[in-house]
Amino acid sequence: LSSATPALLPKRDDDLGTFVHAIYRAYRYDFRNYTEGSMRRRLRNALTYFQEPNLDRLRIRVLEEPQRFTELLRFLTTPTTDMFRDPIYFRALRQVIRQLDPRDTLKVWIPCCGTGEEVYSLAILLFEEGVLDRTLMYATDPNAESLRAAEAGVYTTDRLVAFKANYELSGGQSSLTDYYSAGYGNAVLDRELKRAIVFFDHSMVSDDAFAMVQLVSCRNVLLYFARELQERALAVLSDSLMPSGYLGLGLKESLRSTTFESQFVEIDRDARLYQKP
Amino acid sequence: MIPIEVLVIGGSANALDALVEMFRQLPEPSLPIAVVIHLRTNEPNVVVEKLQSLRGRRVLEIEDKQPLEAPAIYVAPPNYHVLLERDRTLALSVDPPVNSSRPSIDVLFESAADALGPAVVGVLLAGVADDGVYGLARIQEAGGIALAQATGSGRYRPLPSNGVARFGPRIRELPLRQLVAELARLGVTPEG
User: Fold this and answer.
1) Cβ–Cβ of A253/B63 closer than 8 Å?
2) Mind telling me how many Å the CA of B27 is from chain A's nearest CA?
3) In whole angstroms, how far apart are CA A252 and each of A34, A219, A235, B12, B78?
4) Helix or strand or coil: residue A50?
5) Among residues A157, A249, B19, B123, which is most buried (max CB within 10 A)?
6) What's the ipTM?
7) What is the pTM of this model?
8) Tens digit of pLDDT for each residue in B70-86?
């Protein structure tokens, strides 16, 4: 795969383009092809946090103080999501899992998994469908700090109300409380779920496919990528899928008007589930 | 003068009636219109349903990277922020709620101000939340036109006075009927 041409070429007076190029040169994190609106919003939050007046000053600060880069990265990478966000997606996914050959070892990839809510949602679903013990889940993210949080699988209990409501709407067969232990304001996801999951560093922007899997669940990640980067990321996802493999996108994302539209079959429009021929 | 390219409208959940009434009075808009009304997650989009019941309007729930085309009305989906991009598409995000809201009016308005500045008209409908006040001021600052619905009824509070003072002292507040007339005058409808 060749790397995509930057869409955000730094115009001479473009502070955002200058900023993302400087970050790329210094730290090899490539935000050059991210959508501009979200980048500006996230960087405004970073300006407040770092108490800097503008992007030029923030750029100089982060280049001079490399130890602060991980703090900046918190603002720029995958945001936190809710467990079982979009229950309709997980309902549809249950049907897909039931159609898989029960003899096969199942491999699943969740790219840009952030702090892991989606990973554990899938693990619970696979457990309830009786396939988790023969499943290998790859959970990847370019942010090491997020990966550590994902691996820990600890969420504050104030979020559980939303998680439980989603779980029930998603066709959950048990009670979400069966899958975590709560105390001191935190809920810790069950160790048994974690046994199936491998967490590691991977960037959809700069890395290639690393395994062949039957299911890729990549939801609300492409939202942050401009068109050209979406194409690049979709190529990585497509390259990772075995024949007849499934691709799940966010409910407002689609393959429409991408070069991959003709290479996948839309098997559930509302849930945004696609299958490779 | 830079021609107006897009109308952005925001309101809290209880502004839905005012929104429908506005479109009832606004015949055949000739610009693309992006709408954020606060919505409940995991429920059907009532804004789309209500606006589709008006005849002769093309109403779409926003998909990621949706290109803006006149004269359609683009409605924010529940649980996503909507941002206007420089290439005249609408991008979505799942970043944390802003003003306890996702979608947030401030997010749409601020991105519209950043992307297209003086080519933007922003309308904030009267409601119960502060979301949108800051964004409306950003539209004004960027050279766009910022309008807010004034309420005489006292049922909903108008723009929070501290918000207006802090963010946008020159934002014009108009009752709904005059607001529609102003939009027509600005060329949002061909009959204007």
Assistant:
1) yes
2) 29
3) 17, 9, 19, 22, 10
4) helix
5) B123
6) 0.92
7) 0.93
8) 889 999 999 999 999 99
